[in-house]
Recover the amino acids of this structure.
């Protein structure tokens, strides 16, 4: 109406050769009429209609254009026909298993904005792309008797192969195919392979084969020496390795014993006073105590095994490990591992290796002559296990966990719930008790004997839900576990690999799954590295 009023007044003024413009101030700000009576120049109504009207501020127009440009750059069409590798709450961020990124192409992450508070409730899943674990050799139809490699192809004694047959272990995994022949030839080994790939059998089988051959040729005076030392980081793992060893050694009369933490010096002295074992599975702290009190002699060792090397070479164990290594005669060449005055073969086994390994090993052996066995899928995400990540508030994690446990309550499969602190394990246990969830707890502040009983209950299937710290993430046999829940997201990518490795193990439950709750900004940074590695099919960085 104001614009119409200005136009009418201007028209009347042009007819009367005089100019009088009466309008309100805000109208004068928007449109300006110039009237020059002397020159006859005027701005008429038509001129006013042709003037541009600014409806959107210029700075907003610039922002809209920049958003269009950025949106066009990030519009990556990475979905093809077939199953999905990445499945997100936002379908535009899905990625098919057939899509391959270019060398300089950057993926758009589902977890990109997860540091913002508005991202709570978002989620994405890394679907499995293989039905069989990558460390298991595929068996083609019609080739069962032609090309399938079995344990008797390694020249292992028949009695040991029969034990494996009774345990329904007939085909070696890839890491066993690579490791067993080299150990049989006397080489020092550095073996790095993914969790659950059968590393324990890869060193136990050749060791037991050689020990049973030595027992038939040695005199009685040399039988009271320890021939094999297996060093592990925890008592639970020591008992587990010893149980496998006893099962394999039963036909040969080879004695296996364990020495672990949580017991006094008197118990350690009594252990070696009764009978010197052929195979000793020990933790570093207990073994250092025994060496300082001269309870055992490592001079006649034939094999020195360092299992779970990523933990053993960590700063918390490295000093003790160095002391133990210097107490044994480690061979530098395969020719030194047999005959009179033989030295010990060094077998270093692990899923990840920290820095400082070379510094310690170079003091006792020749690194140039060590045979390195590395799995092709080392430090990669497991392609046969589904992994889901949920951005959730701290107060809502217990409800999400309860929902996940309800899905698996009718199945007879195990569930591992990982927490970062012992206090969280206890609090979570009390909370699940109130919800009526039957479970047990395992954390480092418990007595060693109590921990062993709890884990045996879980392995036997007496209780299916185990709430634990990272004490249960290293090396333990969790073949019955079908679900791993990271209630607290792990502190490092190495911890994530070990936790996720509790499912999808050789001979274990199929269709395993890992569920991770993401809460803190530092959790998001690790998740983004995991998602990037999954999308680009690369190994996890920094390992």
């Amino acid at each position: 109406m104001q614009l119409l009023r200005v136009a009418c007044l201007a028209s009347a003024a042009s007819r009367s050769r005089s100019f009088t413009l009466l309008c309100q101030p805000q109208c004068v700000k928007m449109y300006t009429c110039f009237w020059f009576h002397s020159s006859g120049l005027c701005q008429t109504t038509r001129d006013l209609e042709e003037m541009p009207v600014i409806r959107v501020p210029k700075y907003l127009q610039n922002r809209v254009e920049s958003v269009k440009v950025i949106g066009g750059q990030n519009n990556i069409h990475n979905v093809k026909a077939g199953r999905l590798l990445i499945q997100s709450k936002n379908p535009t961020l899905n990625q098919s298993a057939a899509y391959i990124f270019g060398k300089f192409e950057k993926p758009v992450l589902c977890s990109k904005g997860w540091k913002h508070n508005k991202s709570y409730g978002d989620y994405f899943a890394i679907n499995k792309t293989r039905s069989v674990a990558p460390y298991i050799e595929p068996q083609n139809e019609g080739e069962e008797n032609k090309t399938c490699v079995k344990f008797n192809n390694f020249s292992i004694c028949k009695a040991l192969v029969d034990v494996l047959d009774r345990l329904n272990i007939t085909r070696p995994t890839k890491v066993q195919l690579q490791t067993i022949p080299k150990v049989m030839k006397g080489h020092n080994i550095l073996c790095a392979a993914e969790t659950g790939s059968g590393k324990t059998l890869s060193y136990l089988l050749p060791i037991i084969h050689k020990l049973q051959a030595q027992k038939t040729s040695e005199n009685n005076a040399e039988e009271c020496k320890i021939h094999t030392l297996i060093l592990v980081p925890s008592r639970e793992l020591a008992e587990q390795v010893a149980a496998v060893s006893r099962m394999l050694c039963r036909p040969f009369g080879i004695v296996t014993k364990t020495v672990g933490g949580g017991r006094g010096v008197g118990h350690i002295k009594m252990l070696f006073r009764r009978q010197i074992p052929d195979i000793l599975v020990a933790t570093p702290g207990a073994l250092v105590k025994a060496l300082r009190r001269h309870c055992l002699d490592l001079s006649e060792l034939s094999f020195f095994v360092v299992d779970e090397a990523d933990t053993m070479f960590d700063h918390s164990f490295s000093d003790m490990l160095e002391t133990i290594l210097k107490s044994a005669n480690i061979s530098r060449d395969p020719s030194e591992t047999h005959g009179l005055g033989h030295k010990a073969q060094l077998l270093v086994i692990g899923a990840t290796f920290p820095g400082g390994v070379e510094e310690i090993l170079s003091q006792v052996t020749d690194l140039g002559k060590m045979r390195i066995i590395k799995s092709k899928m080392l430090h990669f995400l497991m392609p046969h296990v589904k992994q889901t990540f949920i951005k959730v508030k701290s107060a809502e994690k217990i409800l999400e966990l309860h929902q996940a446990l309800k899905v698996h309550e009718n199945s007879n499969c195990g569930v591992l719930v990982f927490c970062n602190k012992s206090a969280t394990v206890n609090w979570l246990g009390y909370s699940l008790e109130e919800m009526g969830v039957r479970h047990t707890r395992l954390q480092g502040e418990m007595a060693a004997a109590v921990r062993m009983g709890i884990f045996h209950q879980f392995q036997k299937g007496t209780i299916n839900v185990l709430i634990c710290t990272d004490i249960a993430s290293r090396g333990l046999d969790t073949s019955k576990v079908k679900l791993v829940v990271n209630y607290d997201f792990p502190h490092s990518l190495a911890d994530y690999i070990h936790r996720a490795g509790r499912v999808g193990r050789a001979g274990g439950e199929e269709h395993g799954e890992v569920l991770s709750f993401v809460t803190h900004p530092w959790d998001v940074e690790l998740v983004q590295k995991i998602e990037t590695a999954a999308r680009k099919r690369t190994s996890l960085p920094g390992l």
Q: What stands out?
A: Confidence is low (pLDDT under 50) at residues 1-42, 140-146. Residues 135 and 174 are 5 Å apart (CA to CA).
